[in-house]
């Protein structure tokens, strides 16, 4: 997990440097850094929950009700 944090910090610092170098708008900076923070949060949730559930179970939980709804209409 420490290596993941170091990688995300280095990527975020590089993005910040690039955005400042190219004089990007404040909205662009917010979108880029916000998406990086969101991806980091999702990665942390996946890392911490890797023993409790799998991605397949998550997808089944999302799409199973939709599948049942579609089959009910037949």
UniProtKB/TrEMBL annotation:
Origin superkingdom: Bacteria
Keyword terms of this UniProt record: Membrane, Transmembrane, Transmembrane helix
Protein name in UniProt: Uncharacterized protein
Transmembrane segments: 31-49
Organism of this sequence: Paenibacillus rhizosphaerae
């Amino acid at each position: 997990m420490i290596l993941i944090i170091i990688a995300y910090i280095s990527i975020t610092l590089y993005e910040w440097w690039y955005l400042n170098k190219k004089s990007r708008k404040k909205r662009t900076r917010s979108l880029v850094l916000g998406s990086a923070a969101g991806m980091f949060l999702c990665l942390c949730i996946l890392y911490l929950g890797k023993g409790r559930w799998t991605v397949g179970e998550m997808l089944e939980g999302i799409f199973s009700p939709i599948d049942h709804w579609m089959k009910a209409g037949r």
